[in-house]
Fold:
Amino acid sequence: MKFITAIILTALTGFIAGILSFSPWWGFAITSFLVAILVHQKGGKAFLSGFLGIFLLWAGLAWWMDMKNNGILSHKIAQILPLNGNSLLLILITGVVGGLVAGFAAMSGSYLRASSKK
Amino acid sequence: MRLLPLATSVVITAGLVFALNKQWGAVPPMGKFLNPQYGFWQNAEPVGADYDASISLPGLKGKADVYLDDRLVPHVFAENDEDLYFIQGFLHAKFRLFQMDLQTKAAAGRASEIAGPKAIAFDREQRRLGMVYAAENALKEIEKDPDSKKQYDAYTNGVNAYLADLKEADLPVEYKLLNIVPEKWSNFRTALLLKMMAKMLSSGTESDLANTNAKSIFIPDELKLIYPQVPDSLVPIVPKGTPFAAPGIVPIAPVSADSLYIGRKDTVTAKEISKPDINNGSNNWVVAGSKTASGSPILCNDPHLELSLPSIWYEIQLQTPTSNAYGVSLPGSPFVIIGFNEHIAWGVTNAQRDVKDYYEIRFRDESKQEYFFNGKWEKTTLKEETIKIKGQADLKDTVAYTIFGPVMFDDKFSNELSNNRNLAVRWVAHDPSNEGYALYKLNRATNYDDYAEAIKGFQCPGQNFIFASKTGDIAIWQQGKFPARWDRQGLFVMPGEDSSYMWQGFIPQPENPHAKNPERGFLESANQRAADSTYPYFIPGSYLTPRGITIENKLAAMSSITPKDMMVLHSNYFNTLAEDARGIMLQYVKENELDPVAKHFLGIFREWDLNASPDSKGQTIYQCWWDSLEVEIWKDELSRSTQLVPWPEEQITMELLKKDSALKYIDNINTAEKETLFDVVTTALKKAATDLAKKETEGKLEWTKFKNPTVYHLIKDLKGFARPGLPVGGYGNIVNAVTHSHGPSWRMIVHLTNQTEAYGVYPGGQSGNPGSRFYDNYVDQWASGQYNKLWFMKEGDRTDKNVKWVMKFTAGK
Structure:
């Protein structure tokens, strides 16, 4: 239950950080970190829920935008990056990049709470 | 002991954020770039995007409505001129921000700020050519006129109003890829854009440096033969037989001209780095009512430029209670550049005239503070240039300004191998002028007199302004500020130690080549020489003859013309030059000496219909064979100089061979034998056949596969944003002038009937956003010769079904 809660909270707060005009693009790293302090799990689990929270948010948003765009832009960007024009791969990479940052941020949050308890 | 894992994971997190926030070479900051709430995904515009908007902006005087049709063409209805151009600036920024920003930075020699060290030489050349100096002079002139100042201020404020509310997430995707931010607009930047056009169209039309090297190979009579001023086959813009008035100014050659200039063997090593494309040119023509089915004139124009995405053009209609113009505009500048209004239509082609000369300067010493002029040491003005470079320290350069202009080449620039010769540039684009005012007036012209009056102040780049009115007049003026030259003045680098080689004046404007309502009922221009040898001035330039011949022949033979016929002519693939050249090639080829492969190509060539159509193999064989023949004839002579020497024009080579099959240059001077025309034509085919065979194996013998027509993004490296492999034929010397990446950048046909009937298309789309369905939606249409019907919206059409979206603008605080 904690695991699912952490994922949802990470995604939700990450999204809010993304629409705040003063927040830098990596605002979600802070929120993922805070969520992990709030919803305590072991390091590995915290990483996974942080990762999944932002992976789902980013890949989901990217997929949604891509669908509405008929893949016009993603196909072009996937030639420049270069991913052979593969939009789906670009969506997955988007999710993984955000997920990795969030995962390590969440793991840091988990370790911080654990160490401050001792 | 939990601190270690904590520290480790914090370091990893911070490290990741840092790495993803940083640009690595050409790779943008990936975290920011991929984040769907900041990065490129934000530019993935929904295909069903709604452009309706209510926008309140400080700076507007009244209300303005913008009606967007289903092609995203804005029809702007404003209450006054200032609001009109304010909105135009806003729309240009909204749909085309990146190109305006990039092009004006490049014009000012600031490309290195975006592209890094690889653009340094380009930037230095821009500054040494005096692009900024030219724009400053233009701006002073513009701001002297209160009306012009108001219009440019309004335009600038419109661009900046858009920038003021632009969020990072909404930046065009190119900014995100390049990791840069846009810069505020100013009237100065508009002036820079106009000078970019001036460079594009009036800086590559001379070959003074290469011509100077040619003097080291050929004697003056040979130069006249190989690089003649008037080709035999010329069909000039001003119909032959039109009388010219006696010249108002007769420039006198200095007494030393023969010994110190024309007859002096000379070599310069200086080279231009970014010489504008020789193919920059255009077609325009107009037919009078006497030749059309409707009895109303039809005007056509297709400016040939480097094709790009986003396109150089942005379609727009600009209306106030006192004016109404439709056509294409240049993002970065107010006004409609090519278009029509309720009374007239106009178009432009490039005049191709040489308005830029080089003078050799002698400095007193290395400090370049003084130069020798008219017997004494004169002070230069030293301009310190600072070039900012992405990822590198700034670079300083100093440019000395003389009475002629900036010293473009010296010991510090592009002259490493030379004996440190200092070459100053005299260029009409440096002179104060206000070309925009001519366009402002032209947008509002109602008849021939208005048109002729409007364009008078247009100085540079010289253009062939073609005109038609609903009252039935047709006309053309080659308009610009052109130096009155003595014979061969400015063909070569000139002595600059005194005033004797300076321009003595300009051709009086009323004497510029022009024609109105000729009896034959049509006028055309296609970058050929404006007038035949009866024109009383020496007018060198970079002219192209065959395209004009094709158009002239076609129009002369046509009657009861409809817009449809004009569309067909825009797409014409007939190769006029090849018609003559093929005769020579077939007459002189020694078939018995050919191997089966070469014979195979000869067979196809013989059957060729002389059209450069997309699937034509004959055109490919012709071009390769002809190019190979030119090498056989000229390379041995031209290689006598180690420096750049101009190749004789292909039209001239053909004419020379037609006149004299024993032309002395046919012989290869590097061999003991004496080659004949039979030999070189045959050798040329044998050599071409090797390449052609390779192309045939690759499946690239069809003309369109061979030349691979491509519209690149403005940043050529961004291949994913380009449109390669377009199935379109033609070539630079053909009416449909599509080369690999160059050609008709806008095709327009205006039928001046009571209700104006107009068609147009350009290889791009109204939106500059590669993530929009409007980014390249006209490209296929353009390639197949199709047009959009242009909707000339009227006041009463505000609720018409053609209106797809409405942007309502009000004055805000």
Notes: The longest strand of chain B covers residues 392-401. Chain B touches chain A through 42 residues (CB under 8 Å). Residues 81-107 of chain B form the longest helix (27 residues). Residues 282 and 535 of chain B are 22 Å apart (CA to CA).
